[in-house]
């Protein structure tokens, strides 16, 4: 096992496109580290540079204590799992698992032992004699994971490995990956655009945007204190409500007179936006004490919760997460109030967190 250090990693293509813009990452030994971001943000390019599949323009990559800038992929001692399973269609499962070991020239008894151990760990014992076309999508992905596992690498690199699975299978395989990483204690770098995968899997998450790292933190840190307006708008489903505010009479005041608690150390000479999670707002019957008037634009019933979209007099409607026991129809007049603690506040010009 080994940690991974990425220093000032930069990737620019001949046409001038910058895919990765001086990225710094420090991934601990035995950490499950997730790179999260929208398509085109540079996360896969960064992962491929770690693997040696993409040559960086500048910057350094260390795996453990080894500088790997000039090492080919085969000499970096990593295993990669791709979005597409990349299994050999003419080989049975046992031979797909054995292929990288035989390529290294390991003796056949050791190959059999490692294949059987990996198959048992990934619950593939009954599938060892099947070819990929006779396996389901989830089974094929487990074979791909087991093939990486048999190599016993210093680090696993995973590039959106669950994208092609349906929702139920994604949840099952996600659980298997998390259990496997905890059991092995190996370093794992996982790339995804799926927030649920990132929040449920990662010890820490790096949020990337336009080739740059916007924030690195634990799942709760990036959820509760997004470091920028981009992170605030990207993390969460529904995402944060971004409400323009002014400081008045010891309160943050939003459209319609919505009152929020003032965070300590708040600058008062800037154009400010408060990030308010949908669960930090409450919809009530109209004219209830401590509320401002609003109107229900729509209600989305999700079984265990209802997401209300409420017009409260601002340029943008707000989303409110409420328990399913509440019942307000579209166009109904309601009251709206903030029920959470001090929200994170951002400078509109710099788009950074200021309090």
Automatic annotation (TrEMBL):
<dbReference type="GO" id="GO:0005524">
    <property type="term" value="F:ATP binding"/>
</dbReference>
<dbReference type="InterPro" id="IPR015855">
    <property type="entry name" value="ABC_transpr_MalK-like"/>
</dbReference>
<dbReference type="Pfam" id="PF00005">
    <property type="entry name" value="ABC_tran"/>
</dbReference>
<keyword id="KW-1278">Translocase</keyword>
<keyword id="KW-0472">Membrane</keyword>
<keyword id="KW-1003">Cell membrane</keyword>
<dbReference type="InterPro" id="IPR008995">
    <property type="entry name" value="Mo/tungstate-bd_C_term_dom"/>
</dbReference>
<dbReference type="InterPro" id="IPR027417">
    <property type="entry name" value="P-loop_NTPase"/>
</dbReference>
<dbReference type="InterPro" id="IPR003593">
    <property type="entry name" value="AAA+_ATPase"/>
</dbReference>
<dbReference type="InterPro" id="IPR012340">
    <property type="entry name" value="NA-bd_OB-fold"/>
</dbReference>
<keyword id="KW-0547">Nucleotide-binding</keyword>
<dbReference type="Pfam" id="PF08402">
    <property type="entry name" value="TOBE_2"/>
</dbReference>
<dbReference type="InterPro" id="IPR003439">
    <property type="entry name" value="ABC_transporter-like_ATP-bd"/>
</dbReference>
<keyword id="KW-0813">Transport</keyword>
<keyword id="KW-0067">ATP-binding</keyword>
<protein>
    <submittedName>
        <fullName>ABC transporter ATP-binding protein</fullName>
    </submittedName>
</protein>
<dbReference type="InterPro" id="IPR017871">
    <property type="entry name" value="ABC_transporter-like_CS"/>
</dbReference>
<feature type="domain" description="ABC transporter">
    <location>
        <begin position="4"/>
        <end position="235"/>
    </location>
</feature>
<dbReference type="InterPro" id="IPR047641">
    <property type="entry name" value="ABC_transpr_MalK/UgpC-like"/>
</dbReference>
<dbReference type="InterPro" id="IPR013611">
    <property type="entry name" value="Transp-assoc_OB_typ2"/>
</dbReference>
């Amino acid at each position: 096992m080994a940690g991974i250090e990425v220093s000032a990693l930069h990737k620019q293509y001949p046409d001038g496109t910058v895919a990765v813009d001086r990225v710094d990452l420090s991934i601990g030994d035995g950490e499950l580290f997730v790179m999260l971001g929208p398509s085109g943000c540079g996360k896969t390019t960064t992962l491929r540079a770690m693997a040696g599949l993409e040559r960086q323009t500048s910057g350094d990559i260390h795996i453990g204590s080894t500088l790997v800038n000039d090492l080919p992929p085969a000499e970096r001692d990593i295993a990669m799992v791709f979005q597409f399973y990349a299994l050999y269609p003419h080989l049975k499962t046992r031979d797909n698992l054995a292929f990288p070991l035989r390529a290294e020239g390991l003796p056949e008894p050791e190959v059999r032992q490692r294949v059987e151990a990996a198959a048992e760990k990934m619950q593939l014992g009954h599938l060892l004699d099947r070819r990929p076309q006779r396996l389901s999508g989830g089974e094929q992905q487990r074979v791909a994971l087991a093939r990486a596992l048999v190599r016993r690498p210093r680090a696993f690199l995973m590039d959106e490995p669950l994208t092609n699975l349906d929702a139920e299978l994604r949840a099952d395989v996600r659980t298997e990956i998390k259990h496997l990483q905890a059991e092995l204690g190996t370093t794992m770098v996982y790339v995804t655009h799926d927030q649920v995968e990132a929040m449920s899997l990662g010890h820490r998450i790096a949020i990337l945007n336009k080739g740059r790292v916007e924030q690195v933190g634990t799942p709760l840190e990036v959820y509760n204190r997004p470091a920028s307006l981009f992170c605030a708008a990207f993390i969460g489903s529904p995402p944060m409500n971004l409400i323009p505010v002014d400081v008045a009479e010891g309160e943050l005041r939003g459209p319609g007179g919505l009152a929020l608690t003032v965070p300590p150390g708040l600058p008062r000479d800037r154009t400010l936006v408060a990030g308010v999670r949908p669960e930090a707002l409450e919809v009530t019957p109209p004219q209830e004490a401590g509320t401002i008037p609003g109107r229900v634009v729509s209600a989305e019933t999700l079984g265990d919760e209802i997401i209300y979209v409420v017009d409260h007099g601002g340029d943008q409607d707000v989303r409110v997460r409420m328990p399913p026991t509440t019942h307000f129809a579209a166009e109904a007049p309601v009251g709206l109030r903030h029920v959470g603690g001090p929200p994170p506040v951002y400078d509109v010009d710099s788009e950074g967190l200021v309090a």
